[in-house]
Amino acid sequence: MNQVRNSWVAKENREAAGFIDAAEWEEVKREGEDTIKDWIDEQMHGTSVTAVLIGNETADRDWVRYEIKKSIKRGNGIVGIKVHSLKDKEGSTDFSGSNPLKKFVVEEDGDVKTLSSIFPTYHWKRDNGRENIGNWVEEAAQASEQLSGVQRRSVRRRESIAEGLNFDVGAVIVLGILIVIFIEKYTDIDILENIDLSQFQQATGDDNMFP
C-alpha cells in the first residue's frame, strides 16, 4: 500500500525503526520462488521489525506466511496494520480480511500462544497510522525481545482453531451444567428427556452411568 509506505518515507528515523519499503515486490515475484525467498531474506537483513499490511486476502498469501515465519525465527517483531479501508488507484476500498497473525503460534513447555496475542494489529485510518506507526514499530520490537529462543524456533501454523486459545475444559463443562440447570428450572423443557442416553452408555460401556 503506497499510502502507508509514502507516509513513512518522510520520517527521519524510518531506518532506525526497521521499516522496509517493499515497492520492488511486484517485480521480484515474477522471478520465481528462489528469487522471492532471497529477496525477502535480504530485505529483512539489519531490521528489527516486519510490518504486515493486512488486506482482504493477505492471510491466504503463501509469501506472507513465509515472511511471518522468517521474521519470528530471526528475532524480528511484527506489527500488523489493517489497510483494507484505504482507497486504491480506482478510489475503491475492500472488505476486512482475517488477521494472519492469528494463524501462527509459538510454544514453550506446552504453553501455546498465537502471534496475535503477542503482537497487536492496528487499523491504519482509525488508529491514525500516519502519526503512530513509529510507536507501533517500537512496541513490536519490545514485544519480540520477550520471546525466548525456544519460542522463536517453534513458530508454526496453527493445526486447529482451538490451538493457542488455552481453553479451560473444566470451565466449559461447568458452564454447560449451569446452562442445563437454568433451562430445567426456568423453562418447561426437560433436557434429559430429549437426550438419547443409550448413546452415552454405549460409548462408555457403563450401563449404570444413567439410572
Question: What's the quick description here?
Answer:
The protein has 211 residues and is of the alpha/beta class. The chain has 8 helices and 6 strands.
In words, what does this structure look like?
By secondary structure, this protein is of the alpha/beta class. The chain has one domain (1-181). 40% of the residues lie in helices and 12% in strands. It has helices at 2-9, 25-28, 33-44, 62-74, 129-145, 149-153, 169-186, 197-204; strands at residues 49-54, 77-82, 104-108, 111-114, 121-123, 156-157. Strands 1-2-5 form a 3-stranded parallel beta sheet. Strands 4-3-6 form a 3-stranded antiparallel beta sheet. It is globular and about 65 Å long. 18% of the residues are buried. Residues 1-20 and 199-211 have low confidence and may be disordered. It comes from Halorientalis persicus.
**Radius of gyration, Cα only, in angstroms?**
24 Å
Helix coverage percent of residues? 40-55%
| Average pLDDT for all residues | 75
- State the secondary-structure class: alpha/beta
Strand ordering within the main sheet: 1-2-5
Number of helices: 8
Number of strands: 6
Largest sheet: 3 strands, parallel
Keywords: Membrane, Transmembrane, Transmembrane helix
Transmembrane segments: 161-183
Domain Thoeris protein ThsB TIR-like: 2-87
Protein name: MTH538 TIR-like domain
Please tag this protein with its features.
single chain; 211 residues; alpha/beta; three-stranded antiparallel β-sheet; globular; disordered C terminus; transmembrane helix; transmembrane
